[in-house]
Amino acid sequence: MDLVKNHLMYAVREEVEILKEQIRELVEKNSQLERENTLLKTLASPEQLEKFQSRLSPEEPAPESPDAPEAPGGSAV
């Protein structure tokens, strides 16, 4: 029984170390992307920012329309 317990504890510790490394990499990548985003925002002209914001605006209402999946389901009945 102790052998199984030790094996499981070792496997869990190994998995924890892998996950910690992945977290470190993701935090580093996130920081890099945030810095890049800040730099791009400072370098972009007001016209470019406005154009970018206008591109995002049409995408925002899309998640608010849950009626779209119901219509095909209703017509199939």
UniProtKB/TrEMBL annotation:
InterPro entries from the UniProt entry: TSC22/Bun (IPR000580), TSC22/BUN_CS (IPR047862)
Q: Which keywords appear in this protein's UniProt record, sorted alphabetically?
A: Cytoplasm, Nucleus, Phosphoprotein
Annotated Gene3D superfamilies: Single helix bin
**Pfam families, per database record:** TSC22
Question: One GO biological process from the UniProt record?
Answer: regulation of transcription by RNA polymerase II
Q: Which SUPFAM superfamilies match?
A: Delta-sleep-inducing peptide immunoreactive peptide
Q: Where is this region: Disordered?
A: 41-77
Ranges of biased composition (kind: Low complexity): 68-77
GO-annotated cellular components: cytoplasm; nucleus
Cell compartments where the protein resides? Cytoplasm; Nucleus
- Name the domain of life this protein comes from: Eukaryota
The entry sums up its family as follows: Belongs to the TSC-22/Dip/Bun family.
* PANTHER family, per database record: TSC22, TSC22 DOMAIN FAMILY PROTEIN 3
Q: What is this protein called?
A: TSC22 domain family protein 3
Organism in which the protein naturally occurs? Carlito syrichta (Philippine tarsier)
Q: What gene name does this entry carry? A: TSC22D3
